[in-house]
Amino acid sequence: MTLREKKILKAVLQYLHEADHGQRTEVQIHAGAFAGFESGIPSVEELAFALRLGNGMSFVRGVEARFGGMKWNLTDAGEAALLELNDK
Known about the structure:
4 helices; globular; 3-stranded antiparallel sheet; single chain; Arc Repressor Mutant, subunit A
């Protein structure tokens, strides 16, 4: 994982942490997680990669929404990963 990918993943985890167990769509995550992102706003593809990576590592969980798309939330493993990323 590159440094940029790690920063994007951390921003996603932080945003979902602040959602306090709520579910968020990719559009909400893209708008909220990267506000003020210091190294250029990530593309939609970069966000999709971060969500796939986080899902594969069990940091986030995606649930198919009734009317299309996915809703994402943070798992306990994601909370632990966020603490570890904040220590670095």
